[in-house]
Structure formats: C-alpha cells, structure tokens
Amino acid sequence: MENSKEMRTWLDDLGLDHPLVIAGPCSAETEEQVMKIAHELKDTDVNYFRAGIWKPRTRPGNFEGVGALGLKWLQRVKEETGLKTATEVANKAHVELALEHDIDLLWIGARSTVSPFIVQEIADALEGTDKIVLVKNPVNPDLSLWLGAVERLHSKNIKKLGVIHRGFSTYEKSKYRNIPEWQLAIELQTKFPDLPLINDPSHITGNRDMIFDVSQTALDLNFDGLIVETHFDPDNAWSDAAQQVTPKTLVQIMKDLRIRKETDEEAEFNSKLSNLRTQIDIIDNQLIDMLGKRMKISDGIGSLKKQKNVAILQSNRWNSILGSMILEGESKGLSEEFILRMFKAIHQESINHQEKIMQG
Question: What is the pTM of this model?
Fold first, then answer.
C-alpha cells in the first residue's frame, strides 16, 4: 500500500462538510422496522444506511439475521429515501448477493478480519469492484493483521478502501464492551494518513450513554467518520439493544459533534493541539487504570503478609525496584529525579493499602 492517497479519493469525492456518518439498526428485523428508521434518517447528516443482514453471533441460538430477504429492504431504502446502503459480508456468497442487490458499501467484521482465509475469499469475490469496502479491526489488538486484511483487498485492485475501529476484546472487566486501544488506531493513522478511518462507538461502548464521549474522542483524533447503530425502539431491538440510539438522539449527537473544515493557520494549529491533548488524555486514563490494578495487587500482598506476620516494608525489594526503574526511565528519556519522585509516591500508596489490610 505504498500509495494510499488513492484510497481517500472516494471520501473526498463526497464533499462533506461534516464527518462521514453511517447509521441504522444493528440488525434488519422487519421491512417495516428498516423503512421506519430509514425515513427518520433521510434528511439528516447520515450518508449511508447500515443494517446487519447476516449476524455472526458469538454463541448459537441468538438471532442471526434475516438473510438475503433483508437486501431487498435495503434496495427499497435507497429507492424511497435516496440514502446509500451498507451491510457486513463474511463470505463469497454474501458478497455476491450484496453486489446483486447493489449495496453501496460493504464492511468486513472483526471476527472475519482475524482470518486471512476469509479475507482472501472476500477479496477474490470483490476483485476490481468500485464499491466501498471497509475493514473492521480484528478482535485482538493486532495491527499487522488489520493492515494485512486491507493489503489483501488492495492487491485485488479494490481502490475504495477504509478501516473501522471498533475496539478490542479483553477478558478484563471494563466500562467498555471492547477496549478502544486508541494507540493502535493512532499508529495506523500515522503510518497511512490517507486511509479513511471510521470509528464505531456502538461496539466500543456497548452502552448508548457513552456514544457521544467516544465519538468526540475519535473526532479529536481526526477520525474521518462514525458508524452508529440506530433503532427507533432500542430497548426492544433483536440484537445489541443496549448500544443503539434513536434517530432523534443521533441527530442531536451529530449537531453537537459537527466539525466544519477550516483552512486558516490558527484552525490548523488548534486541530493539531486538540489531537495531541486527546492522546495525552487517553494515556493519562490508562495510567490511572494501571495504577488501580497495581494497588489491587498490593492489597493481595498485604493479605499474604498479614497471614505470615511479615513486615510491610521490604527494603531490599524496594531498592531493587527503584534501581531497575531508574535505568528503564533513563532509556525512555525520563530523569532520575522524576522516576524517584513518582515511584516513591507509588510505593507510599502501596504501603498505605497494605497497612489498611494489616490493621484489619
């Protein structure tokens, strides 16, 4: 992908004065449901109407989509509202049916991106297409795997490419459904600044109340657009009910988030400054999260010391940690003074936690 500038052409050709917006229900449930949502979105900032036709589920037994029948509903959406259409494809048969029904934008889901075999099958079926094809990040935080999927498509002469950042699975409990791991998206953006980057706040959060904040972070990081799950009755949706917003809520979100393109030097400065500050905010939150985890481990150590009646302060261990951290800090350009002050504060907080455990 040495020349990724051609990938941005399709986005520039849209001539938007706001971020690209892809919206619609997680799943196409009924023709009436699809049409009602589409008509509520047709005169908004939404550019593509999305709906899941085939739903790959983690476990069998859940609603897995209406299948090819739903593609006819998307055709009707385009005819009646003028909205372009989008859906997920996971194999050659899906691709062929989607092309047959003139779906405008196709995306490859996170579960498919993890398999080079699946991606290659889809790429072969799409060879030379003029449709827009977006690749969601794989379930695991593997940048090479993500880029590899894009390269497979690009090698099949597919020009209208982009990626979707939907977060990454984790076994740890978190406020997110899928951990954003913003640094991976930032690294991808740095390597390929002309590759359109879309954020999926619905799957990152799993919670409609967090959609706005994640969307704002994405736009502060210069993402090109959003894909947001939208339903007129989210609580009764057949899939992913908690993360869908109503069309009315989406309209308000887009009004609050809208970022107009400006060309003057001050606007460019403010945009770059906002981007860097957002990156710092992300790292600061990660630091707090890691420190919280560290103190939970200290609590466990305190419990063990209490059982064996061992002193809290272990000088040899502390000196060893401090020495190694000073060396590690120097390799990262951090002064010895800073490392000492920081780790003394962390050590004291750890002692405080263990003292609470020791005192019952």
Answer: 0.80
